[in-house]
Structures are given as structure tokens and as C-alpha cells.
Amino acid sequence: MLFNSLNYLVFFPIVLLFYFVLPKKVRYLWLLAASYYFYACWNAKYALLLLFSTGVTYLSGLLIASARKRGKKTEMKLWVAGSFVINLGILAVFKYSGFVAENVNALMKALGSSARMGAPDVLLPVGISFYTFQALSYTADVYRGALAEEKNFFMYALYVSFFPQLVAGPIERSTNLLPQIKQPHSFDVQRARRGLLLMAWGLFMKMVVADNLAPLVTEVYTNFAAHSGSEIALATVLFAFQIYCDFAGYSTIAIGSACVLGVDLMRNFNQPYTAASVRDFWRRWHISLTTWFTDYLYIPLGGNRRGKARKALNVMIVFLVSGLWHGANWTYVLWGALNGLLIVLGEWTLSARSGLWKGLHVNPDGAVRRNIGRICTFAMICLTWVFFRAQTVSDAFAMLSRVFGSFDWNAMTAWVSGWGLQTQLVSLISLLVLAAADALMARGVDVPDKLQATAFPVRWAVYLALVFVIIVFGAYSNSYTATQFIYFQF
Predict the structure, then answer these.
(1) Which one of 9, 12, 80, 239 has the fewest beta carbons within 10 angstroms of its own beta carbon?
(2) Could you check whether the bond before residue 179 is cis, i.e. omega within 30 degrees of 0?
(3) 313-319 long-range contacts, Cβ below 8 Å, gap at least 24?
């Protein structure tokens, strides 16, 4: 069930109605049933896989707590390791077995061997990477003593399967989400207003911005040989906004849906394209995943406590794993590696760059330096997006060679002219609206709260305008083509 579907438009009000009407003691059971129905709409049998992962991590929490009470530290580590091995093993089979088989077979062929490795023919369960990491964070948090084990299996199952963020995040922490869902919430008009506004804004990002840019990007990336370097460069910039609005749009709808239910999910994006460095970008982009890897991989590896070289190695390991988490393809691995390398190089050259700015009589912490940093960061991030979006590594390098070797402004102008006036206007105006909203948020303005505090006519004029734009230039636009959320494939 997609957020941008009529099914969800019917499903969500029904969930809300029964949630706030049912006795408080059983509301979590209703949310649990609704969450499993939501997931089963994609593939009912894979709901059993979700249930199995939930059972493994639930049991591991109980066993870890029991071992702690008996002072058995080795046993605690054993149960943690078992939980991670089983869950990551399931993830490996469904997501990476084909990738491994393909590369092993290519290697065997190169060595002249006729042996071939088979791979199970399985469909990737939607959201498996997200709910697996969320469940494993519970195991790790119980092991660390960050929270007590959850004894109510159904309550814990709701934590893993909470439908607003089940299939594409934010990847919640047990310390944040579990206490909230254990508390029955009363209907709050202010929260409902804020949540519905966030949902509408998320739909605008997805349906008006991302889905209108998607055909333009696809046209170039599926047939890049027919396009000049300038067209590839522009398509890459458009993809930067497409993936941002697609993924942040999902997260915003998820946060808004949970808000109406009385639950506060963590912020997943914080105006990432205003970042002044690649490291800063990753503090703002997919925050729930970045902090997950920081807490459960980077810090256990030693973080920045073991010297400059070890810190650089830890950063590279985290980003290589992050790339692989995104997909079983060398393009994602290289994308992760490039981001890690840019962060490492950025840190190693920091003092030299600060000295250069001072030599040019430019304040390293001033507005000029920050704005130049933002432009350079955006350019570097766009370069990495080429590898993320390209179908193969060779395609990515071929596209970059065209960008730097056949940059033709006239070809780009002709391509844009061929979009048609409606596509041109919708793309330009929606991006300007997005930029304005992000600029306000970057200045610390809480746009939803600010809007709710305005006069009734102004507030409702904005609400109606937003709905009108979503309907006319999204769902019912002649040029609109609905697309699945990009991160569903991860």
C-alpha cells in the first residue's frame, strides 16, 4: 500500500477512527493488526518473515536480560551475536545471494572454470533492510542496558512493524518509539493539524516534485548515449532533487501519520543540500541510517579514538557497508566508497584549506566560505549520485566522461525546450517552493507551526492551494506518471 494511493486515503482514516474509539488498553493491538495488514498488501507471505525477525529479536532481548541478571556476560554476547547472525543472514539470502552468485560466476568464468553457483529465485521483501535494522537496534540497546527488555510480545511486534515507518523509515530506536507506543494517546487537534499538514507536504514533495522529475531523469539515464554531457549533468541535478523529494517525502508522510496518532518519529532529513561539506551532508541526509551506523558500527569499530589512520579506515568501512545496504550492486558500493573518501579527504585537507582561505583574506567561518562550500558540496554529491542512479559502474564512468568531454549548452537548451511548457513551469515553480521552504527551515523557522499560528483565511488558503496543486499537477496532471518510492527497493 503506497502513501500516495487511494487505498491509503481510505486506510488511514479507518485506522485513526478505531484507534481513538477503542478502549485504551487494546489500541496497540489494533495498530499491530493494521500494521500487518499494511505490510501484507505487498506480499502476505512475507509478513511471516517480518514476524520471524520480530520473534528472534524479541527472544534475544529476553535471553540477554536473563543472562545479565545471572551475571553471564559471555552468554549475553552469545545471544546478541545470534540475533545479528540470524537477521543479517536472512537479509543476505533475500538481498545479496543473487549478487554473490553473479560475481562468483563471473570470477569462475574469468578463471576458465565451468562451475557455476546457483542462487535462490526470491523476491526482495519490501522494507526488509529497514525493519531488520530497527529490530537489531532493540537487541543492541537491551544488551547495552539502554532500556529494559520488552516482555509483551505484541507490544514489541508493534515497535518493529509500526506502519507509518515500516517499509522506508525513519529507522527508529527502541528507546524512542517503544515508550511512545506503550502509552495510549488521546486525540489532539493541534497534533492532527500538524500531522495532516506534514502529510500534505510530503505528498507535494513526492507527487508534484519527484514524480514529475522522474521521467526526465529516466529518459537520460536509460539512454545516456543519445544525450550530451550537458543533458546528463542537468539530469543528474534533477535526480538529486528527485531522490531527495521522493525519500524525504516518504519520511515526511510517515512522520505526519505518526504525529496524528500521537507518536513523534525522529527527523530523517534536515535540508541536506544546504550542507557546507560532505560530512555535514551526511549529518542531514537519511539521519536515522547515519546515526544507526554511527552507534552500532562506527563507534564499536573504535570511532575516532584510535588515531587518524584508523578513523579514516572506520569511516570507509561504514560507507562501504552503507553502500551495500542500499543495494546489491557495485554501483552502490562505489557510491558509498566515494562518499567515504570525500569525507576522509575533507578532514585531511581541512587545515590546509583554512590556511588558504586566510591567505585570501576570507574568513573560514564566514558566509562567503560557507556559500562556496555549499556549491562545492552539492557538486560533489551530484557526482556521487551518478553512480547511485546508473545501471552499471561502466555506465556511470561513461556518463561522467561525456559530462566532462561533450558539454553542449545548445543541446541542453533544446532538451529542456522539448519538455513542454507545463513540465517546465511545474518543475521550476515546485523547486522554487521547495527551496523557499528549506531556506526557512534552515533559518530555524518551524513552517508547520508558523502556518498554524497565522490567521484562519491565510492558513486555509495555503491548505487548499497545497491540495489543489497535488491534485492538478500531481495525481491528475496529463504528464504525471505515478512511481513507487525509490527506497522501497532497499
Answers:
(1) 9
(2) no
(3) 315/340, 315/343, 315/344, 316/340, 316/341, 316/344, 318/293, 318/294, 319/343
Q: What 8-state DSSP symbol labels residue 123?
A: P
pLDDT digits 0-9 by tens, 157-196? 999 999 999 988 899 999 999 999 998 889 999 999 999 9
What percent of the residues of the chain are helix, what percent strand, and what percent coil, each to the nearest 5?
75, 0, 25
Q: Is 241 exposed, middle or buried (0-12, 13-18, 19+ CB in 10 A)?
A: buried
Task: Give me the chain's average pLDDT, please.
Answer: 90
End-to-end, the C-alpha distance of the chain in Å comes to 16
Instruction: Give the closest residue to 392 by CA, choosing from 437, 334, 314, 351.
Output: 334
Please tell me the distance from the alpha carbon of residue 479 to that of residue 464, in angstroms, as a whole number. Answer: 22
Do 156 and 150 contact (CB within 8 A), yes or no? yes
Contact 240, 287 (CB under 8 A): no
Rounded to a whole number of angstroms, the CA Rg of the chain reads 24
Q: Which three cell numbers stand for residue 334?
A: 562505489
Separation CA 246–CA 487 (nearest Å):
8
Report CA 183 to chain centroid distance, whole Å: 27
Half-sphere exposure in the Cβ direction for 56 (13 Å, CA): 24
Q: Tell the residue number behind the cell numbers 552499471, with chain if given.
A: 392
Chain mean position to CA 486? 9
Cα-based distances in Å from 326 to 123, 250, 331, 490 = 16, 16, 10, 5
Are the C-beta atoms of 121 and 36 separated by less than 8 Å? Answer: no
Q: How far apart are CA 386 and CA 399, in angstroms?
A: 8
Q: Contact at 8 Å (CB) between 187 and 37?
A: no
The pLDDT value given to residue 479: 58
Choose among 364, 344, 346, 345: nearest CA to 354.
Answer: 364
The residues annotated with a catalytic role in the active site are 326
